[in-house]
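Full entry
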Amino acid sequence: MLEMNKKTQKRLLRAFTLIELLVVIAIIAILAGMLLPVLSKAKGKAQQVKCSSNLRQINLALSMYADDFDNKIPPRISGGPNWISALLPYHNNPEIVICPSDRFKAEETQKRSYIINGFNDFFAITLSKKEFEEFREWTGSKPMKLSSVRFPSETIMFGEKKQERYDVHMDFYQGDGNDVEAIDQNKHNASGPESRDGGSNFAFADGSVRLLKYGESLSPENL
């Protein structure tokens, strides 16, 4: 009789140990469910900070380029020696034009997360009618000086583009107005690509970089 009680006790002990294990697993699952969104948000914040740092370095490269070229920024050229190749010698790091939020395929050749202001307003005012028509058709472009920007702290120089776009400039005359179509207004958010509760990084003509909420970049100071 005593031997049977010992066996029964062992079975009960094993049963309680299993229940305790299930409770622990359930607690771990609950904690994981609570922590994953926090970790995802932290990762997203880290990517946003890295993108901001990239834009700051690109803006610095632009400033050094302008110092060497009579205060001028790279000319508005869709193909050929545009700002991407023009600024490379001043930062010497092809990786800074890629935001870690973007996931480019290995075979893609145009890996770039950023886009530069085309300054259509400036050229519309300063070019002759003939020159401006050439400007619109991408058959001619004069360089613009940084000193022409009247409100540098409020004028966007670089922004984050949508990953699938290959546009070079924020430009009314490239595509159907890619200042709207190509710019990613919400690259950094914690609620998915369809939400509008995040924003994107933008570099300004004074060298600063700021995160603008969805839609705020569509009405900066113009020239």
